[in-house]
User: Fold this.
Amino acid sequence: MGENMFEDATVVVTGGGSGLGRATALAFAQQSAARVIITGRRKENLDETAVLHPRIVPIVADVTTADGADAVFDAVSGTSGKLDVLVHNAGIARLTPLDPPDMDGARELLDTNVIGPYRLTSRLLPLLRSPGAAVVIVSSVVGHLPATPGLSLLGASKAALDSLTRSWAMELAPRGIRVNAVAPGPMRAGMGSDLYTPEQLDRIVAGFVAKVPLGRIGDPDEIAGWITHLASAAGSWVTGKVIGIDGGRDLNG
Assistant:
């Protein structure tokens, strides 16, 4: 990608309208001359990210659908014709307790968190630079630790992403395409605001922090730095890894 990181690179970041997606898009755009295409379902959120840097291009697209994946494909084709970095950040959380079950919410969660990355990666595969492209998936600490009651399917979806990371790394290695994941702990930005009241969130955060050796939750910029590192030349011999970025939460089991 040149002497500077991401010189003339094309990057796609899904879920780029807020939180970690926004921080990741900015991190790529600010490093050299990367062209960053962000996707999401809400135009207003994407526009709020795009105005922060002139090299960020917003594309309204639901990547769980064929039309959404085609829209991203067309955007990359019209920009450079080749894709250097694909970041799967889009995801949702839904309360899916066993009793009572919420089958509609369960299907929406799994469709967004698992089928979406599968569909988009498959659609963009002809454009991924071979060799040299990098795919980075945003998983979560709940992919390998028990989830809060009611969030078991969220944890299962993240565990699926961990598995896809390792399997795709093997499948795409002959093409010279690397696949890695980051598994963050909770971040305040956007954390469960559509699921819990502020008071409930405070209790959940306090419970998490009590088990974190570093004694705090994370910041999106900290995670974004790891995403750009894994996608850069500095990570060129790393593939199939799920990197926990959680303040040491794993140390407490």
